[in-house]
Design a protein that fits this description.
- The model is unreliable at 139-147 and 149-164 (pLDDT under 50).
- It is built from 7 helices and no strands.
- It is 79% helix and 0% strand.
- The chain has helices at 6-24, 29-57, 61-65, 69-78, 86-98, 105-134, 136-158.
- The protein has a single domain, classed as Nucleotidyltransferases  domain 2 (Four Helix Bundle (Hemerythrin (Met), subunit A), Up-down Bundle), CATH 1.20.120.
- By secondary structure, the chain is an all-alpha fold.
């Protein structure tokens, strides 16, 4: 099964477009609010695509659905699918949680300030997804090594040797 990333790619493109437009007119609250909405749906699509990718390449879908978010990101990082690790993704998740409070000026500014880093992360993820789909032979070799590394890491975490 091949991961269909077109929706995520479209969302990332729209987020990039919104960010570029907002940066030309920072005082426009309506543009800012639209940018925050684009961040929200791009974030949701990003982590869902990560779940699908890991489910298709490493674990069973049911294992991935039950995986805590920090473990999902650590696994994706170990598979070199995300550029940054858990600390960066925790901040993106915190920003996503702040979006329900965007009527607060400081919360809206915080979310907008985090969008460039998030967008860079999503564009990297899309590049990695596309590379794996275009080069299946390389993908199988990489996934095999990743599977061994990740399974070893998951075993370490469940035995208590890896702190969160």
């Amino acid at each position: 099964m091949t991961l269909d990333t077109r929706t995520l790619a479209n969302a990332a493109s729209r987020l990039r477009e919104g960010l570029d437009r907002y940066q030309r007119n920072i005082g426009d609250d309506q543009l800012r609010d639209g940018l925050i909405q684009r961040f929200e749906f791009t974030y949701e699509l990003a982590w869902k695509n990560l779940q699908r990718y890991i489910g298709e390449n490493l674990a069973t879908p049911s294992e991935v659905r039950g995986m805590p978010f920090p473990d999902l990101i650590r696994t994706a990082s170990e598979m070199s699918v995300v550029k940054s690790g858990w600390p960066a993704w925790r901040s993106f998740r915190d920003l996503r949680n702040k979006t329900s409070h965007t009527y607060e000026e400081s919360a809206a500014r915080d979310v907008v300030a985090g969008i460039p880093g998030f967008l860079e992360e999503v564009e990297y993820m899309l590049e990695r997804f596309n590379r794996h789909s275009e080069h299946p032979d390389d993908r199988e070799a990489t996934i095999g090594r990743d599977r061994e590394d990740v399974e070893s890491g998951l075993n370490d975490r469940t035995s208590g040797s890896d702190s969160p």
